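[09:14] KT: can someone run the structure on this one? pasting the chain below
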Amino acid sequence: MKFILALALACYFSSGDGVVYICDSSLSVAYHFKRDCRGLNNCKHEVIKTNQADAEKLGLKICGWED
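[09:31] RB: done, structure tokens below
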């Protein structure tokens, strides 16, 4: 059962459709799976909820703090 859940989660996040958070700044370089990710601590702009595919279209990469 754990394997199926892990596989489902992996497919969900690798599909590019998962919910992510980005800092609404032209200087942003990363997206985050968690709203409270420490990588968003320095965001001085609005934090926007979007999907992974759209974040990647903006040229953003996964945050280095994400495990």
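[09:33] KT: thanks! The chain has one domain: 2-62.
[09:34] RB: yep, looked fine to me
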